[in-house]
TrEMBL record:
Cited Pfam families: DHDPS
CDD domains: DHDPS-like
Signal peptide stretch: none
Record has Lyase as a keyword: yes
Catalytic residues as annotated in Swiss-Prot or TrEMBL: Y132, K156
GO molecular function: 4-hydroxy-tetrahydrodipicolinate synthase activity
Name of this chain's protein: 4-hydroxy-tetrahydrodipicolinate synthase
Domain of life, per lineage: Bacteria
Cited InterPro entries: Aldolase_TIM, DapA-like, Schiff_base-form_aldolases_CS
């Protein structure tokens, strides 16, 4: 089965940093047909800087363009109460696939994580719920064995968790796992993963979808070419939210503004890649 490429879309704002519904819809519409689906209101989407109403709006925009089968709505929050509320909002908007990050900021143990996920799973009913592990950002490490006890359908593995992709697959062989490491498409596909959740593909989808197709076809030369292009995208954008938003701006969507403080993006480096 071909590994899928889900774009982790950035959230686009107006100059006054109000949510820009038109720009977000335009980006989603452009991505439709170029990637296999979208992951909305995640890390690339600056979810800690979004309020509940904005996240409900973003879910609705993505579902309108991609439909429920090709949209994963991130409902994670620092508090279980907020995550449950976001889950109910996503379901009301028509979502059937949800992701929830571990609790963050306060230190937690494995039982706390399990209870947090269980509350979201209960609120989600028949919807598919996937965990989102990003220990580098949350400070929370969940082992494959601990994750197996959560009862979730699988998860998105980013940072240090992505480096243990094979261990998670071995612990839950029937679950679906995506890597947050954009350029690891080939390794994920060969390891039986579902695919990648890629922020970089929001600006330059083709290298990543071409790589997935080449691996599926067993075309070694096409794979090498696509891998080189995917690696070049990562080098140009730096794998950062500010780099992704600047690249999206250069593609004609939004103004590149972030709500969350971040370094200046590599404008010229991104432009040079786009011209190459």
């Amino acid at each position: 089965m071909r590994a899928e490429v889900l774009s982790a879309t950035p959230t686009l704002f107006r100059d006054d940093l109000v949510l820009d519904e038109g720009a977000n819809t335009a980006l989603l519409t452009w991505l439709h047909g170029r990637v296999d689906g979208v992951f909305v209101a995640g890390t690339t989407g600056e979810f800690p800087a979004l309020d509940r109403a904005e996240r409900r709006t973003l879910a609705g925009l993505a579902l309108d363009v991609f439909g429920a089968d090709r949209t994963i709505v991130h409902v994670g929050a620092a508090s279980t109460r907020e995550a449950v509320s976001l889950t109910r909002d996503a379901l009301a908007a028509g979502a059937t696939r949800l992701a929830v990050i571990t609790p963050y900021y306060l230190p937690v143990d494995a039982d706390t994580v399990r209870r947090h996920f269980a509350a979201v799973r209960e609120a989600a009913g028949d919807a598919d719920v996937y965990g989102y592990l990003f220990p580098d950002r949350t400070g929370v490490t969940v082992s494959p064995a601990e994750f197996a006890a959560t009862g979730l359908r699988g998860g998105k593995l980013s940072g240090a968790a992505a480096a243990r992709f094979a261990d998670f697959r071995a612990a839950l062989p029937d679950a679906r796992f995506w890597s947050g490491a954009d350029t690891d498409v080939a390794a994920v596909a060969r390891g039986g993963g579902a695919g990648v959740v890629s922020g970089l593909s929001s600006a330059f989808p083709e290298p990543f979808t071409d790589l997935a197709a080449a691996v599926e076809a067993g075309d070694a030369e096409a794979e090498r070419t696509a891998q080189s292009r995917a690696d070049a995208v990562r080098a140009a954008l730096g794998g950062t939210v500010e780099g992704i938003k600047e690249a999206v701006r250069q593609r004609g969507f939004g103004n590149g503004r972030l709500r969350m403080p971040a370094p200046a993006p590599p404008v010229e480096r991104i432009a040079a890649y786009a011209r190459s």
